[in-house]
């Protein structure tokens, strides 16, 4: 897919992975719209980065998603790429009686439901285009859980399965919409890395954000169905042979590092 003169929506685009991809795609000559919950952060990001377009939206809220879709249909009818990136991570102990049900499911609402809501709301618009693409950001943790953030791992595994099912439905409908799953390892420049200590990050599993953007963009250009970046390649391969052993060993290492 040629990544020029496209109209692209990036959710969670005010920081981290979303912002880095939004900037790169903007520099490549595309119209890029970023979303986030905070209007203030949207306004500041757009002010500091001329050319970006901002729309406040909460991907976990169906009403907010529907309003966003309505605005996009009116003002950006040529939308042809969705980059589903919005995500949060919570660490919690399942034995802790102070942890509420709302806290347990917050990541599901944003990471998994948000990806599904945005995709469903905008799929008809993408289907009108000559060629389109949906990029869903999952994770290394779609393949192996991080024990102190159990719901996060579950959401990323769900995004993996949803992406596969979505791709097959699109194929059955004969639509020219590519679906790419982007699977980053831990990215040290984002705000989702407090789960790991810096020594472990630097030595084993981290990847610079710029390198993730490079491999992600190349994957999009080649219509890849999945991009396993950095350490994710190693872990995905290893899980084919000893999944239970690796899950246990990995989980214990991470719990002891915190």
From TrEMBL:
Gene Ontology CC annotations of this record: membrane
Keyword terms, alphabetized: Oxidoreductase
SMART domains for this protein: PKS_KR (SM00822)
The keyword Disulfide bond is assigned to this record: no
InterPro entries given in the database record: KR_dom, NAD(P)-bd_dom_sf, Sc_DH/Rdtase_CS, SDR_fam
Keyword Oxidoreductase found: yes
Domain Ketoreductase as annotated: residue spans: 6-189
One Pfam family it belongs to: adh_short
Taxonomy, superkingdom: Bacteria
GO MF terms, alphabetically ordered: oxidoreductase activity
PANTHER family on file: DEHYDROGENASE/REDUCTASE SDR FAMILY MEMBER 7B, DEHYDROGENASE_REDUCTASE SDR FAMILY MEMBER 7B
Family classification: Belongs to the short-chain dehydrogenases/reductases (SDR) family.
This protein's name: SDR family NAD(P)-dependent oxidoreductase
Species the sequence originates in: Paenibacillus rhizophilus
